[in-house]
């Protein structure tokens, strides 16, 4: 599907969201059948102008010719809208099954997309799921509720263990998962630990494989687009390690730009390097991926400008960006285009939407102040009755 989105200063965005398939990068790789199959590619020309609703938004009407792009949705990757998380889980869950695990443990924020994806994937494979979720000190002793990802996790029967942000910071995710692992082993279970975001060297295969899929989709297309840049959000490091390695080894050779939504670029360069070393890739992360800071107020925290931007994109294009990852990445990218127009001028950009739609439900109070579009319908009492199909009363 082709989509035209304005980026400000007359530059066009190309949004390419992938529908994953079930293919192996080599004979030894293990994958579990938890993904959907690729959607058939199709295209349509569309011109869109994105009027800004507020002066501080980096999103302005495009004044020159737009670029065409492809839209093939990664956020709709099957397994209940699990986005990029399911690509990594495809390999990690297969490893869990191969090791004879009867349960999985993972850890993340209170609205973690990865934890929700893991809860669903576990049930697909008849495994129990144990989640350690980070929340505020004020809420750690209370029922976490049923908003967004929590609703899906709890519907799927995941066992939720709450930890405060302070405890998480002091103890660390590795120790916390190991503590729970030892407890479950003593209870006679066989747990398999999945790290934050599914980001380890094995999980990195998910986005090495994604690059191959991008290549195949381009080859099957009619326009033979050559992308100069790939842009993506960065929250745990596995996606950018896989994308950048895959791009550097493939025919794409596109420059990967990551916008970090937590921590800082130096942290992610070092973390990605560890994943690459685990794959014996023999490359430096700083040579294959450029990382910029886009965390703003902090992880999963949004300014009104960022949320207004998410609203503007949805209203103009029908593309729903999540507020935690792709929303911040797209906002950061467009801001950088305004501040450094020469850097992006004339380049063909592949923006990867990594999912996270359910995270919007945790932002309803913030969004309510600038989303209207409703009114009481005025119907004259003299209008004659005419029934349609079915009576909804």
UniProtKB/TrEMBL annotation:
Keywords: Lyase, Mitochondrion, Pyridoxal phosphate, Transit peptide. This is D-cysteine desulfhydrase. It is an enzyme of class 4 (lyase). Belongs to the ACC deaminase/D-cysteine desulfhydrase family. GO terms for cellular component: mitochondrion. GO terms for molecular function: D-cysteine desulfhydrase activity. Its EC number is 4.4.1.15. The keyword Lyase applies. It is found in: Mitochondrion. It catalyses: D-cysteine + H2O = hydrogen sulfide + pyruvate + NH4(+) + H(+).
């Amino acid at each position: 599907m082709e989509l035209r989105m304005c980026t400000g200063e007359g530059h066009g965005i190309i949004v390419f969201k992938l529908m994953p398939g079930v293919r192996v990068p080599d004979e030894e790789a293990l994958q579990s059948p938890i993904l959907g199959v690729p959607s058939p590619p199709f295209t349509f020309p569309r011109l869109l102008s994105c009027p800004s609703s507020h002066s501080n938004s980096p999103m302005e009407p495009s004044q020159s010719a737009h670029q065409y792009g492809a839209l093939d949705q990664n956020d709709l990757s099957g397994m209940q809208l699990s986005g990029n998380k399911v690509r990594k889980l495809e390999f990690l869950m297969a490893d869990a099954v191969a090791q004879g695990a009867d349960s999985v443990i993972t850890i993340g924020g209170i609205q973690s997309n990865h934890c929700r994806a893991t809860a669903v994937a576990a049930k697909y494979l008849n495994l129990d799921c144990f989640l350690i979720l980070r929340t505020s000190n004020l809420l750690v002793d209370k029922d976490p509720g049923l908003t967004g990802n929590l609703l899906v996790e709890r519907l799927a029967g995941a066992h939720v263990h709450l930890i405060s942000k302070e405890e998480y910071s002091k103890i660390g995710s590795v120790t916390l998962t190991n503590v729970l692992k030892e407890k479950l082993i003593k209870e006679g279970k066989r747990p398999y630990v999945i790290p934050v975001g599914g980001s380890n060297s094995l999980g990195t295969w998910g986005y090495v494989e994604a690059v191959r899929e991008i290549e195949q989709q381009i080859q099957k297309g009619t326009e033979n687009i050559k992308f100069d840049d790939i842009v993506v959000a960065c929250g745990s490091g596995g996606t950018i390690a896989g994308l950048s390695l895959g791009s550097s080894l493939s025919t794409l050779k596109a420059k990967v730009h990551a916008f970090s939504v937590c921590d800082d670029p130096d942290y992610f360069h070092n973390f990605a390097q560890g994943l690459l070393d685990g794959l014996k890739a023999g490359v430096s992360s700083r040579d294959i991926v450029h990382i910029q800071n886009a965390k703003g107020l902090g992880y999963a925290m949004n300014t009104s400008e960022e949320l207004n931007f998410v609203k503007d994109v949805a209203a103009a294009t029908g593309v729903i960006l999540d507020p935690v990852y792709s929303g911040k990445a797209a906002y950061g990218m467009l801001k950088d285009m305004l501040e450094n127009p020469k850097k992006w001028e004339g380049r063909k950009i592949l923006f990867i939407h990594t999912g996270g739609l359910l995270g919007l439900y945790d932002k309803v109070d913030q969004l309510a102040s600038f989303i209207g579009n409703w009114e009481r319908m005025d119907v004259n009492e003299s209008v004659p009755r005419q029934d349609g199909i079915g009576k909804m009363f």
